[in-house]
């Protein structure tokens, strides 16, 4: 997938107008059939700490379909430049019926565009079918930082309530440079900001950054150990980068039929929230 990042790096952002944004929801639409790989899934589960062998990890097919999403963002009809996009949030609605032992056809398309205080936020939706039946549905939202305001757009809102004062520490998350590079290889997400301090500094970061879908996947795995996900939707909102090496505390609070969680820095004197999320 390095070629896709290189292609995206030389791709120039096109003019963005209300009509071009509206047209994105019709085309392009990309699809690809992914063959089963029990070995790949086993490696993924081990890396993210997923122990629910009878259930699918909610983020797995999002990882398998990363190349498809990158192709969509790098497409000639896409006005966005892939390098520089900021991952704002990710939500997975359907995943419980998905399997790893049969082929899965994934379809990627652009969704709604939003006005963000720092630019434009665009959705990328991924749906999956196995044996002719919908089994997977997920949406990632990405920020393109720009002063452009191409007409009236709905305002971007994260819509997630962080755990409150009654939250408890569910687990400690830790990420080394070796773990992050291993995830980059497994997922194919070889964005330079994740690979080393040197390559991260080229893009303005002081150190390499943990993949948001990696730290989020570990958090979801811990929640699965303690309460089970039971096929409920999972929604993550990313707040700030988690620099390598990293340690974070996973806070959790049960609210009616939902579980609210957050990853915060282990240093309580300088507490930072890396992401917030909700199951249910």
Note down, in words, how this protein is organized.
The protein is α+β, with helices and mostly antiparallel strands. It folds into 2 domains: 2-145, Thiol Ester Dehydrase, Chain A, CATH 3.10.129.10; 168-279, Hotdog Thioesterase (Thiol Ester Dehydrase, Chain A, Roll). The protein has 8 helices and 10 strands. It has helices at residues 2-10, 18-24, 38-48, 60-64, 66-73, 177-187, 197-202, 212-226, and strands at residues 29-34, 86-94, 104-116, 119-130, 133-145, 168-175, 234-238, 246-255, 258-265, 273-279. It has a 10-stranded antiparallel sheet. Strand 9 (258-265) and strand 10 (273-279) form a beta hairpin. Helix 3 (38-48) packs antiparallel against helix 6. The relative contact order is 0.16. The model has no long low-confidence stretch (mean pLDDT 88).
**Rounded to an integer, what's the Rg over CA atoms?**
18 Å
Q: Into how many domains do the coordinates divide?
A: 2
| CATH homologous superfamily placement of the largest domain | Hotdog Thioesterase
Distance between the termini: 33 Å
CATH level 3 topology of the largest domain: Thiol Ester Dehydrase, Chain A
Known CATH architecture of the largest domain: Roll
E-strand count? 10
